[in-house]
Amino acid sequence: MKKILLLGSGELGKEFVISAKRLGCHVVACDSYAGAPAMQVADAHEVFSMLDEAALRAAIAKHQPDLIVPEIEAIRTEVLLDVEKEGFEVIPSARAANLTMNRDRIRDVAVGLGVRTARFAYAESSQALMDEARAIGFPVVIKPVMSSSGKGQSVAKTEADIQASWDYACAGMRGDRQKVIVEEFIAFDYEITLLTVRQRHGATLFCPPIGHVQERGDYQYSWQPQPMKPEFLKAAQDMADKVTADLGGAGIFGVEFFVTQDEVIFSELSPRPHDTGMVTLISQNLSEFDLHARAVLGLPIPVIEAVEGASAVVLADSNGTQPTFSGVEDALREPGVDVRIFGKPTTRPYRRMAVALAKGPDALARARAAAAKIKVHVQHA
């Protein structure tokens, strides 16, 4: 039985724990607050900030895990680099966790490999942001180098928007680096997540591409498969293979691309299950969480099969505690629809609390209709 130390215990971590437990693993779920979703299904849990170096080292020393599996970006990754040298295994690798913790580092890796990206620059002050935005040309997209689920991301259409974009990025930052990435605005036709599976024993595998729509930098709904020209899909697979091979290790990577009429452009990468990939809970024979578990455990993945599917999130609209849900019964009356309630103990505006899933014809419309039926009710402080 493998012992896994899971760093971050949100809804993606919860589904990963379920997949790992089905394969006989013992999982210790860690997060900064008690009652996090993955803790509810894990064997044990620890509550501490992943940015607390001493607490992170103490958890690793206490539990002596076979595998350390990050689920979030905001981790003191220097600790992971150290413990990997001591013999602990980090998924997919400590270098991958360290590089992808910040958007600047993974973007630099992609450029170094000759991968096509949007033109970009970095800024550590609002004035530097203004200078770089002028050099790139408006409109520009501004993101914190480290954030969670797209928080702090905005589009500055003119110079008048720069200060507000800087303030919004700073408010959405995680960790302790006050630094943003500013990039050219790509007039894309659509954007995709290409779930890329690196195996311990076997070739790198790709799930059918997942299309998605974001608002406020956060995914709202996704669908699979996203139709693509064969040459564009091949280009995306080649870029994903190149970047993930450089990062190394085993596990699933969520690789994001912009697709225009003329080309495919690398956007971002997460070395873990991806939020847009929740659609695979209903669309694939093995979900992204099953694939991640098999890959990190070195178990075979004979085939990935997919049908038309879609996901749509259910958001909270206020701050509160003890959330309850109405409309679930109505949502589940539709054939081919399922619902996952994440079990988060508190709410805030736009916090993701559940997801509606649908498969079969018109999956996206049916998933969105199901999600719209579900309402979140909370106790207000």
Describe the structure.
The chain has 381 residues and is α+β, with helices and mostly antiparallel strands. It folds into three domains: 3-90, Rossmann fold, CATH 3.40.50; 119-184, Dna Ligase, domain 1 (2-Layer Sandwich); 190-379, 2-Layer Sandwich (D-amino Acid Aminotransferase, Chain A, domain 1), CATH 3.30.470.20. It is 31% helix and 29% strand. The protein has helices at residues 11-22, 53-63, 77-85, 94-100, 103-112, 126-136, 162-172, 230-247, 280-283, 288-297, 328-332, 363-373; strands spanning 3-7, 26-31, 44-47, 67-70, 89-90, 120-123, 140-144, 154-156, 180-184, 190-198, 205-206, 210-215, 218-224, 251-259, 264-270, 309-315, 320-326, 337-341, 346-347, 352-359, 375-379. Strands 10, 11, 12, 13, 14, 15, 16, 18 and 20 form a nine-stranded antiparallel beta sheet that branches. A five-stranded parallel beta sheet has the order 3-2-1-4-5, sandwiched between helices. A four-stranded antiparallel beta sheet has the order 6-9-7-8, with helices on one face. Helix 1 packs across helix 10 (288-297) and helix 3 runs antiparallel to helix 4. The mean pLDDT is 95.
Task: Write the SSE topology.
Blueprint: E1 3-7, H1 11-22, E2 26-31, E3 44-47, H2 53-63, E4 67-70, H3 77-85, E5 89-90, H4 94-100, H5 103-112, E6 120-123, H6 126-136, E7 140-144, E8 154-156, H7 162-172, E9 180-184, E10 190-198, E11 205-206, E12 210-215, E13 218-224, H8 230-247, E14 251-259, E15 264-270, H9 280-283, H10 288-297, E16 309-315, E17 320-326, H11 328-332, E18 337-341, E19 346-347, E20 352-359, H12 363-373, E21 375-379
Helix pairs in contact: 1-10, 3-4, 6-7
